[in-house]
Automatic annotation (TrEMBL):
Phylogenetic placement of the source organism: Bacteria, Bacillati, Bacillota, Clostridia, Eubacteriales
Pfam families: F_bP_aldolase
InterPro entries referenced in this protein's UniProt entry, alphabetically: Aldolase_TIM, Class_II_FBP_aldolase, FBA_II, Fruc_bis_ald_class-2
The UniProt record lists the keyword Zinc: yes
Keywords tagged on the record: Lyase, Metal-binding, Zinc
Protein's UniProt name: Fructose-bisphosphate aldolase class II
Uppermost EC category: lyase
Enzyme Commission number: 4.1.2.13
Database matches in CDD domains: TBP_aldolase_IIB
Keyword Zinc: yes
Length: 306
């Protein structure tokens, strides 16, 4: 069914697992993800960035998600990823999204509180849940200058949640978006996550930038014409540990992109005379399904969560 994240997060928190939130852009990604979730009887969050909204349009995405629900019968929440403003929030709620993120992490604390509260009031009046963000994830270029990390302060997190009434909170504990997360040894601030968990008992925390960056997929890309150097993600054991703590939602986009690109490059290189999109897009879809099944088994622990 089309659901919000309320029930998903409650069960995930109590069961010490997390729900995967996968970024979607097209039919093959949606089918790859939901086929995996169906095979594991797992709930899932399909999330849409503003870039994806622009690429596919809310109507195409929402109608494909509706089809996925009809075909698979699994519980799906449709979520706006990194919503920039109220206007975008209104647009996706109109389209039928059940969850929105407002990312005010680049504003100062008081402005983030004010804008998030405004979104929460609007969304809650329409039965939609809200994820907010506090703290700044490191950017790709910031990796070398780690002082640019602004880890989430537990005191501020408590104050922020109480004042905004947001339903979940994305925090910064050392992850970043993209395929180049750590220049050296991966490190996450589990002490901050633990402190926030203690101060906000039962409250769902969200981990952005949580792709593991499969070295196998990177190697396949590079073997068949790609040039991806120095890619590194969050080790699976760290994601597992976070999922057993207060983290209830684990965001992954880069891993899907790498799986898709690896499968496409390999298929086209090995089948030079093939030009039927169903063949190469089919290979990509299959690789995405395999990736998500492994995520559910090894990282999220969300099998049989419905
Ligand atoms: O948070 C970032 C996601 O990976 C979405 O990326 O803005 O390129 O669609 P995008
Ligand atoms: P990755 O780049 O690690 O896949 O993170 C995606 C994300 O956080 C989307 O909001
Ligand atoms: Zn993100």
């Amino acid at each position: 069914a089309l659901v919000t994240t309320k029930e998903m997060f409650k069960k995930a928190y109590e069961g010490k697992y997390s729900i995967g939130a996968f970024n979607i852009n097209d039919m093959e990604i949606i089918q790859g993800v939901v086929n995996a979730c169906k095979s594991r009887n797992s709930a899932v969050i399909l999330q849409v960035s503003t870039g994806a909204l622009k690429y596919a349009g809310p109507a195409y995405l929402m109608n494909m998600v509706d089809a996925a629900i009809k075909e698979t019968g699994i519980d799906i929440a449709v979520h706006l990823d990194h919503g920039p403003d109220l206007e975008t929030v209104k647009q996706v709620i109109e389209a039928g999204f059940t969850s929105v993120m407002f990312d005010g992490s680049h504003y100062d604390f008081e402005e983030n509180v004010r804008l998030t509260k405004e979104i929460v009031d609007y969304a809650h009046a329409r039965g939609v849940v809200v994820e907010a963000e506090l703290g700044v994830l490191a950017g790709v270029e910031d990796d070398v200058h780690s002082e640019k990390h602004v880890y989430t302060q537990p005191d501020e997190a408590v104050d922020f949640v109480q004042r905004t009434g947001c339903d979940s909170l994305a925090i910064a504990i050392g992850t970043s978006h993209g395929a180049f997360k750590f220049a050296g040894t991966p490190e996450l601030k589990f002490d901050i996550l633990e402190e926030i968990g203690n101060r906000l008992p039962g409250y769902p925390i969200v981990l952005h930038g949580a792709s593991a960056v499969s070295q196998e997929h990177v190697a396949t890309c590079n073997e068949f014409g790609g040039a991806i150097k120095g890619a590194q993600g969050v080790p699976k054991e760290m994601l597992r540990r976070a999922s057993e703590m207060a983290v209830c939602k684990v965001n992954m986009d880069t891993d899907i992109r790498l799986a898709m690109t690896a499968a496409l490059r390999k298929f086209l290189a090995e089948n030079p005379s093939e030009f039927d999109p169903r063949k190469y897009m089919g290979a990509a879809r299959k690789e995405i399904q395999k990736l998500v099944e492994e995520k559910i088994d090894d990282v999220l622990g969300s099998a049989n969560s419905m």
